[in-house]
Amino acid sequence: MVEFANGNFKFTFPNPKNVSEFSMTLFKGHEKKEICAIHLSKEKVIPKSNVTYCQTEHSNSSTTFILKNLERKHIDIYTCCLEMFLPPPYIDCRLKETYLYIQDKEDCISLGLTSWIIIGLIMFAMIFCVFCVVACCLRNKNQQCESNSHEYNSEYMPMAAVNVAKKTRI
Predict the structure, then answer these.
(1) Are 79 and 32 contacting, i.e. CB atoms less than 8 angstroms apart?
(2) What ranges in the chain are assigned the alpha helix state H?
(3) Which of 79, 72, 63 is nearest to 55 (CA)?
(4) Helix, strand, or coil here: 5?
(5) Which of 9, 37, 161, 169 has CB atoms 3.0–4.6 Å from 25's, for a disulfide?
(6) In this structure, are residues 40 and 23 in contact, taking their beta carbons and an 8 Å threshold?
(7) From the centroid of its chain, how far is CA 142?
(8) What is the mean pLDDT of residues 19-30?
């Protein structure tokens, strides 16, 4: 059984019945990299962990692997292998696989921030384009008004400058 509580994943497996010595190992990935294990016999319980994020708990009825502080890089298939040693016959490995997916909190925040930045840039570009179109239209309108007032056939055509005649002194 897989349980998620307080940010930790707990893989709980029932202990085999009528077995005095057994071992449970938790593997990660298709290559079956051992991340933690527990060996139980009548006299002792021996936990073993190859990573910092895995711990084991044991009770009379079950064995639990606890995965703590998981990140996106821990997404993978997790496989539990049960080996029974005593009483004979030795049973090599009974497998139970679970796919574990972890969604980072930072991904949600960064995705939101990224989308707001993109929306802001698009809005800025649209406002800039509208401003350019309005400025261009106003400029063209002013040029049309100026050119209409200087038409050559207009009765208000500006007159050529005339030099004033000089008076002779006598």
Answers:
(1) yes
(2) 105-149
(3) 63
(4) strand
(5) 37
(6) yes
(7) 52
(8) 85
Closest C-alpha to 78, from 96, 92, 98 = 98
Instruction: Judge contact between 70 and 55, C-beta under 8 A.
Output: no
Percent above pLDDT 70 for the chain = 74
Burial label for 149, CB within 10 Å (0-12, 13-18, 19+), is exposed
Model confidence at 126, pLDDT cuts 50, 70, 90, reads very high
- Backbone phi, psi, residue 73, to 5°: -70, -15
For residues 135 and 63, give the distance between their C-alpha atoms in angstroms, rounded to a whole number.
75
Task: Tell me how many degrees the CA angle 28-29-34 measures, rounded to the nearest 5.
Answer: 35
Report angle CA 78, 39, 94 to the nearest 5 degrees: 45
- Three-state SS for 92? strand
| pLDDT over threshold 70, residue 65 | yes
Report the alpha-carbon distance of residue 104 to residue 137 in Å, rounded. 50
- The pTM assigned to this predicted structure is 0.54
Q: Which amino acid is at 28?
A: K
24 neighbors 13 (Cβ within 8 angstroms): yes
The token duo for 46 is: 């021996």
Distance of CA 145 to the CA centre of its chain: 57
